Amino acid sequence: MSDDPDAYRIDETGQRVNALELDCHLFFGVWSVVEKTGERWTVRNADGETLTLVPEP
If DSSP codes are grouped into helix, strand and coil, which group holds residue 56? Predict the structure, then answer.
């Protein structure tokens, strides 16, 4: 993730997620990637809820 931002914000909740947290969520299967467009991630959590992660300014 060298070109990716250092932090993201979950669009639906406003919660901040740093790049390490994102990596861990994906690695351990807490989230699965639905789509990645540019720096915007769409993920699905274990409950089936879809979340959109956008770069934190």
Answer: coil
* Euclidean distance between CA atoms 2 and 13, whole angstroms: 26
pTM above 0.90?
no
Instruction: Provide CB contacts within 8 A for 44, sequence distance 6+.
Output: 31, 32, 34, 50, 51
- Give the number of other CB atoms < 10 A from CB of residue 56: 13
Nearest CA among 13, 17, 15, 14 for reference residue 4: 17
Q: Which residues contact 18 (CB under 8 A, 6 or more apart)?
A: 6, 7, 8
**Mean local confidence (pLDDT), 25-34:** 95
